[in-house]
Amino acid sequence: MDEYDLIVIGTGGAAMAAGIEARSRGNSVLLVEHGPLGGTCLNIGCVPSKNLLAAAGQRHRAATHPFEGISTSAGPVALGALMEQKQALIDRLRQAKYADVADAHGFPILQGHARFIDQETLQVDGQALRARHGYVVATGVAPHIPDLPGLGDVAYLTSTTAMEQQDLPASMVVLGAGYVGLEQAQLWAHLGVAVTIVGRFAPHAEPEVADVLLGVFQDEGITVVQERATEVRATHDGVEVRTGSERRLTGQRLLVATGRFADTSDLALIAAGVATDRRGFVVVDENQRTTNPRVFAAGDVSGVPQYVYVAAQTGHVAAAGALGQPSAVDYRGLPGVTFTTPQIASAGLTEDQALAAGHACECRVLGAQDIPRALVNQDTRGVLKLVIDAESRKILGVHAALDGAGELMLAATYAIKFGLTVDDLADTWAPYLTMSEALRIAAGLFRSALPTSCCA
Fold first, then answer.
1. 300 labelled as ligand-binding?
2. Could you provide one GO biological process annotation from this protein's UniProt record (predicted)?
3. Is residue 236 part of a domain?
4. CATH assignment of the domain containing 316
């Protein structure tokens, strides 16, 4: 039986981080993968979606820019060529950031399906393996398919298969208006598809932020139906979705984007003594340790926020814990970005979360019409919201719907993590005519609601 100090199941961001952590401590490590090298982010998540969103955004700007005297055009889309370019990017990153990195750090990757035999032993396609110190489960998530009447009778798309299409449909209904649904809906709309999106719109965003994006979607001709889908039916030319109010929404294709559940299929976690919740996510403590003290879990499969940088950090923590040096992830000021146009982004607590945590909070909302960068861009659809503790005046949360909102969130995370006050932000240099300047301007609203001159 082959033995390693640490065995990691998966090869995504969490798994690679665990492997690097183990090797940095001088331990032997094996990664096991039954699918493509690189996990969700590289293959079916962040990289392909943001690549296609960037392409679709270029086309949309050419067709709709606000500048007089400038002539541009947006012709038909050769989707096959776009998909080939996307796949070439994935292949290049898979080699440079995964295969080459594994070789450089000196840990092998075994192709095959992993399954626990008991609490101490793993089997990969019939080969028994044992880890001297422990295991890390980092198998990611898979699209959740709801139990919706009629759904099994139609050829629906998921966010994965949608990004493999070779021909553009004329129309599409998107089920789910969370971050994946929002990105996918606007992606296909910007490529010329008539899109209808069904579900509670941007449910995790601050209401002021969600309202901005809702207005943009409506301006762009995306039909937004904030109802629950109750039934799906195949039609002679596509699909029909019925809602709770008996609305009938039709499209050539149906895209299901109703969240993601843990991918723990056929791992035999019960045999390993590893508990999961009702959605399959592995139950872990703050050190990423499961109910089996020799098994740790990291990344999306462990129920943490589904961002690749969180996955990587939990991978480091899980490997360190398995090797006898437990630690924990510091989530203060955790940023998140939805790559719509405009982007919606956040760091830290929402207003409701701040109140629930016992803060006497204050909030200010800056409209994009008061941001010089937005004015010169000729697009003032946007907001920036600051949430602070009223007593200490420390920044608790930053939320935005702006062009490049995600670029503001690193500074926001620094402010939250290191305890900066709203006065610190107001009194700190900000370069004029950048969107990041909005942080300083919004901070000034806590001193006076009166307007200021450009840099005053």
1. yes
2. detoxification of mercury ion
3. yes
4. 3.50.50.60
> What mean pLDDT comes out for the span 427-453?
92
- The number of angstroms, rounded, from the C-alpha of 415 to the middle of its chain's C-alpha atoms is 22
Residue 194 in any domain: the answer is yes
To the question of whether residue 19 is assigned a binding role by annotation, the answer is no
Task: Check: CB of residue 268 under 8 Å from CB of residue 117.
Answer: yes
Contact 56, 190 (CB under 8 A): yes
What average pLDDT score do residues 110-120 get? 96
pLDDT band at 401 (very low <50, low <70, confident <90, very high): very high
Confidence bin at 400 (pLDDT 50/70/90): very high
Q: 424 phi and psi, to 5 degrees?
A: -60, -45
- pLDDT for 318-346, tens place per residue? 999 999 999 999 999 999 999 999 999 99
Residue 50 assigned as binding residue: yes
Task: Name the nearest CA neighbour of 18 among 102, 97, 95, 99.
Answer: 102
Spatial strand order in the sheet of 157-158:
157-158, 253-256, 171-175, 194-198, 223-225
Looking up residue 346, the CATH number of its domain turns out to be 3.30.390.30
176 is in an annotated binding site: yes
Task: Check whether 177 is labelled as a binding-site residue.
Answer: yes
CA distance 23 to 8: 12
Q: Is this prediction's pTM over 0.70? A: yes
336 marked ligand binding residue: no
Identify which of 135, 111, 78, 81 has the alpha carbon closest to the alpha carbon of residue 291. Answer: 135
DSSP string, 174-222: EE--SHHHHHHHHHHHHTT-EEEEESSSSTTS-HHHHHHHHHHHHHTT-
385 assigned ligand-binding residue:
no
Asked if omega into 108 is within 30° of 0 (cis), the reply is no
DSSP 47-66: HHHHHHHHHHHHHHHHHH--
Question: Is 423 one of the annotated binding-site residues?
Answer: no
User: Domain containing 153: what range?
Assistant: 144-258
Note whether 123 and 153 are same-domain residues.
no
Q: Is 199 annotated as a binding residue?
A: no
Distance CA(289)–CA(303), nearest Å, equals 13
Q: Is the dihedral of CA 46, 51, 56, 62 positive or negative?
A: positive
The residues that bridge with 281 in the sheet, in sequence order, are none
Are the C-beta atoms of 258 and 200 separated by less than 8 Å?
no
